[in-house]
Each structure stands twice: as structure tokens, then as C-alpha cells.
């Protein structure tokens, strides 16, 4: 045989590449990244649609964000987990996978772990984004470590709901199965809120309103053990060969649930920043809680005209104070009520007063209408109210409109009363400054005592 006809050596076989990792496949082509995007988008849309109700108030932001996490994201991730769990049966690959070398626990981990990771990462990212959105409009105060730990416990809850939905998807071979854990999740979180029994403390959404309470540091770990233990027990019971191993997390969850039921209201306490007052140097002084200290300057600007018209008047309340938990402004205490700041979305939106004229008008009403047995008030309240808050277009501020409104009623006595009130308002405005200050002081101080018979006349 010649050299030209000699056979050449066979080429070496190509080295096999690394086997694809299940995590990489799930993150590239699976449900996990879409689930994370759905959680993030749902958080943004739900919170953004109600931004006026929470932006600026840390407590309101915390409360609404946790409610959104439980009642909106909870059913969502439970349905997503169920869909992921039913993937094998939808594809008809159940029998093939049961013959695979990898066991049920390994297959479950490969399919579930990326989904849980994306859901939790999206929830924490959305939470951080919401707090960044409220920071530029902060009314004051802030969050405690207990608030932050509760968001971590919420992440554990979402992970547990995802895992529980996954188990349901494995067990229920029905295309509509994702509806089952979703509806059950919403019912378990929403319905017990109206029960009013100690068992409602087991629902993670339960927290005091309107958000001026601080959670104890132990509350979040106990909630995490309660919700996470139940989910872990369900997952171990489905995947482990030794089913009794599920008793350990189940027992921990039962102990945590018993602790939640027995604690009562000890898990929350009043935020001291919602009780301490911060005051300015004006007269009368304006005092807001430390949790709303950034509203002190806007309140002073809104009431600058009211203070100017009351300058030099004797017998006025020393302070206009914001009402706070456990404290009620009483007549004769030297205090009058400041208009309410909360709930947000009315007088305060995104850290500022929505209408300074309305705010001043309400403050003048607190001076003239304290908590008296006779709600009728003084005879000249409308006149004094209009003088103290003339920017608010109401009552006698527009004489022509006031007379036209009285004439439209068709009652001659109402028209006559309106003409008399307008004449008294002109008379009050024409009084010398010192005499007007003394008159206003006597009128307001009598109103604060609910002694309407002692009010001077014009």
C-alpha cells in the first residue's frame, strides 16, 4: 500500500460543553423574570394610583405598602407559583420526569427557587422605590427598625405563598388551578379583618390605623416564622421522602401563631414622635407633632393673615395645636384645634397644603366653635369668621353674591339678616385698630368658654 493511500487518523472528538444550569435556563426562558416584572409593575401601579394618600407620610406609606403587598401581591404570586408548579402536567412530561435521575426535591428546587428569588427581589426593589418616592415630600418623623423588619417578614410571606401555590399546582391538574390559591389567599387576608376576634392577629395585614404606631422588634421575626413555617411544612410534605420532617416547621409555625394570638396589642405602641409637639414663635403659637414637623412652616404661612388680624387681641388661646393620639383639646385649656393634616389627600398632598385659604378658614372656625354643648355658636360668628378668613370665598366675602343667594331663597327675613350682617362686617372693619383688637379678644375668649351671652355686640 502506498503512502498516498494510507488512511489518516480520525479527528479527536469535540469536548462536550458544560451542561446548562437549571437556574440559567429558568432566568432566560422561564416564568421567573416575568413574575418579577409583574410584581414590580403591580406595586408601581397600585401605589402610584393612590400617591396623594401616602407620599410624605412615612407611616401612611408603610401601612399602604404592606396592605398592597398582602392583598394584591399575595394572590398574584400564589397564582404564579401555581402556574409554575403545573408546568409539568401541562406539557405532559410528568411520567418522563418521574423516571429522571434527579429526585423530586431537586426538580422542585430547580423550578421554584428562581421564581421565589425574582419575586422577593422585585418586592424589595418596589418597596425601596416607594420610599424613595415619599422621601422628597417628607412631613417629618421616619421609620424604625421594626418597620423595616416587617417588610423583610413580608418578603418571607411572598416566598411562602409562591411555594404554597407551587405545591397546589403540582397536586391539582387543572388549567384553572391558579385561581384556587389566589382566591384563597385574598379571602384569608381580607375577610378576618372584619371578624374582631383574637384570631385576626394571625393575619399579617393587621396593624393599627392611621399609621402612628411603632411595631415591636420581635413582631417581624414571629410573623416570618408563622407564615414561612406553614409554607415550609407544605413544601417539605410534598417533596421530602421522610414526610415527618414537615412537623418541625409546622410546630414552629404553631408556636409563633400562639404567641401572636396571646400578645394582644403589645406588638404595637404609640410613636413618641406622634405625641411630641414642635411649636413656632408666633402669636398664637402653632404647634404640630414631631412626625409632621415639616408642615410647621407652611402652616405658619397659611395662618399669617389670621395672626395679623388677631394681633393685640387679649384672651386668645395661647396655642393652635395639632390633635394627637390620646390627647383632646379641651376648652379653657389655652389651646385651640389646628385643622387636620391627615388622612393625606385632602388638606395635605405631597408634603404641602392644598388650599391655604381653606386651612385658615378652618383654623378660624376652631377659635369660634370649640367643643360646646350648644352647637349654634355666637350671633356674630359669620361676621367674625368672614373677617378673620377673608380669602376663603364663602358666606359674606362677596356681598353681591351673599345678597343674591339670600334673595333666591325667597324669604325676606333671610335677606334682611344678610344685609344686617354685611353692615356689621363693615362696622368691624372700620373700628380703630386698638378697639377692634379688644373687641375680637372679648368675642373669641367668650366663644372659647362657650359663654355666648358674654360676647360683645356690634
TrEMBL record:
The chain crosses the membrane at residues 31-52, 64-82, 112-137, 149-172, 179-196, 216-237, 244-261. Keywords: Membrane, Transmembrane, Transmembrane helix. Residues 1-25 are annotated as: Disordered. Signal peptide: none annotated. Residues 10-21 have a biased composition (Pro residues). The keyword Nucleotide-binding does not apply. The keyword Transmembrane helix applies. This is ABC transporter permease. It comes from Streptomyces rutgersensis.
Amino acid at each position: 500500500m502506498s503512502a498516498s493511500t494510507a488512511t489518516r487518523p480520525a479527528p479527536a472528538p469535540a469536548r462536550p460543553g458544560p451542561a446548562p444550569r437549571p437556574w440559567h435556563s429558568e432566568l432566560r426562558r422561564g416564568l421567573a423574570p416575568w413574575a418579577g416584572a409583574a410584581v414590580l409593575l403591580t406595586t408601581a401601579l397600585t401605589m402610584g394610583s393612590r400617591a396623594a394618600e401616602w407620599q410624605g407620610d412615612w407611616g401612611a406609606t408603610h401601612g399602604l405598602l404592606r396592605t398592597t403587598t398582602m392583598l394584591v401581591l399575595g394572590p398574584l404570586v400564589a397564582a404564579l407559583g401555581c402556574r409554575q408548579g403545573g408546568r409539568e402536567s401541562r406539557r405532559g412530561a410528568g411520567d418522563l420526569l418521574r423516571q429522571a435521575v434527579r429526585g423530586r426535591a431537586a426538580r422542585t428546587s430547580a423550578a421554584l427557587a428562581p421564581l421565589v428569588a425574582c419575586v422577593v427581589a422585585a418586592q424589595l426593589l418596589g418597596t425601596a422605590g416607594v420610599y424613595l418616592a415619599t422621601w422628597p415630600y417628607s412631613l417629618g418623623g421616619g421609620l424604625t427598625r421594626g418597620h423595616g423588619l416587617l417588610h423583610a417578614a413580608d418578603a418571607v410571606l411572598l416566598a411562602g405563598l409562591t411555594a404554597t401555590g407551587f405545591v397546589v399546582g403540582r397536586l391539582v391538574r387543572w388549567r384553572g388551578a391558579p385561581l384556587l390559591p389566589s382566591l384563597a389567599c385574598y379571602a384569608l387576608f381580607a375577610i378576618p379583618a372584619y371578624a374582631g376576634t383574637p384570631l385576626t392577629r394571625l393575619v399579617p395585614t393587621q396593624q393599627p390605623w392611621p399609621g402612628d404606631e411603632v411595631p415591636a422588634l420581635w413582631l417581624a421575626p414571629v410573623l416570618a416564622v408563622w407564615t414561612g413555617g406553614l409554607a415550609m411544612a407544605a413544601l417539605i410534605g410534598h417533596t421530602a421522602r421522610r414526610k415527618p420532617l414537615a412537623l418541625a416547621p409546622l410546630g414552629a409555625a404553631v408556636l409563633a401563631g400562639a404567641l401572636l394570638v396571646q400578645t394582644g396589642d403589645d406588638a404595637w405602641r404609640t410613636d413618641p414622635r406622634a405625641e411630641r409637639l414642635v411649636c413656632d414663635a408666633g402669636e398664637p403659637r402653632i404647634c404640630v407633632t414631631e412626625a409632621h414637623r415639616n408642615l410647621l412652616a407652611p402652616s405658619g404661612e397659611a395662618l399669617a393673615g389670621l395672626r395679623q388680624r388677631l394681633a393685640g387681641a387679649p384672651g386668645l388661646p395661647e396655642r393652635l395645636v395639632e390633635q394627637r393620639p390620646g390627647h383632646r383639646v379641651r376648652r379653657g385649656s389655652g389651646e385651640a384645634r389646628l385643622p387636620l393634616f391627615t388622612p393625606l389627600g385632602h388638606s395635605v398632598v405631597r408634603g404641602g397644603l392644598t388650599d391655604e385659604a381653606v386651612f385658615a378658614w378652618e383654623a378660624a372656625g376652631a377659635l369660634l366653635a370649640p367643643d360646646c354643648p350648644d352647637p349654634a355658636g355666637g350671633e356674630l360668628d359669620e361676621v367674625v369668621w368672614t373677617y378673620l378668613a377673608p380669602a376663603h370665598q364663602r358666606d359674606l366675602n362677596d356681598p353681591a353674591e351673599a345678597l343674591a343667594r339670600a334673595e333666591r331663597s325667597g324669604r325676606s327675613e333671610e335677606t334682611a339678616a344678610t344685609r344686617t350682617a354685611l353692615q356689621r362686617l363693615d362696622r368691624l372693619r372700620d373700628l380703630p385698630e386698638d378697639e377692634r383688637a379688644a373687641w375680637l379678644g372679648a368675642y373669641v375668649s367668650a366663644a372659647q368658654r362657650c359663654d355666648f351671652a358674654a360676647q360683645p355686640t356690634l
